[in-house]
């Protein structure tokens, strides 16, 4: 297997405050997983608020350096430092899609301006015909066209359409990997599934791998190949998405699943939790993980 992304023993500790009020947060602890270059997949990172999902994504994007461990993309170490050309080459391979498309676009700028500057930057050309073609191709991949988008400002589009434009922008350099951090949580409920299906078709039709970060177990179940469940910085369970979600092994994963089924808040993407159960699950985290063989022959790794 050729490895696309290799996350090896990665931890991130933030230190805040001065010498007297110093505080540290272990945002990510000992994360390990890898994605294959040959088999594009949707790899989901799930966990409630503050569990370290975004920090892990920022390290994969080279926006933060790990405190320990290393992240390799196609065998090369990902780092916040490095020259402009090196960064551009990396960014053409790994592109982010953020949560709020309305924040990703300046309300005073036409959408095509963003697409244009991305195309100019990655294709290293000023040729208008080449740039227009690249923009149109990327927009077609998300079910839009340059004709539909041209001349429009962000507020003239729905959240779903704007998120498609953000995904189109990310696709301009033809990256093999997208990191989508809660890409549907700010999109109208009625349009969410169309974005989720779009991620699925990027994987199936364009062979793009997607790291999908979410609170939402339902969409995770629907599109993911594999997933990891994070709690307070640690991966507590990892495996085939349906195997894990059909029959979670770790107490925290069980709790997440139970919370979705039992609270009204789940629709907002926030999971209500019982503090007693969270503590019980938390106490188990930090013990060595073990592979659990399931009767159907599949395996999940369970920590605790
Ligand atoms: N730059 C930073 N400085 C200090 N602490 C940070 C920083 N970034 C994140 N943290 C802390 O690290 C922990 C993990 O945060 P992170 O944003 O990665 O979680 P998350 O799972 O993405 O949460 P959410 O779903 O709310 O976005 C939290 O306790 C957060 O407060």
UniProtKB/TrEMBL annotation:
Which SUPFAM superfamilies does the protein's record reference?
P-loop containing nucleoside triphosphate hydrolases (SSF52540)
User: Which segments constitute the ABC transporter domain?
Assistant: 5-257
The record's Gene Ontology biological-process terms are: peptide transport
- Name of this protein: ABC transporter ATP-binding protein
Q: Write out the GO cellular component annotations.
A: plasma membrane
Name the UniProt key words of this record, in alphabetical order.
Answer: ATP-binding, Nucleotide-binding, Transport
What Pfam families does the database record attribute to this sequence? Answer: ABC_tran, oligo_HPY
Where in the cell is the protein located?
Answer: Cell inner membrane
Bilayer topology: Peripheral membrane protein
A GO MF annotation of the entry reads:
ATP hydrolysis activity
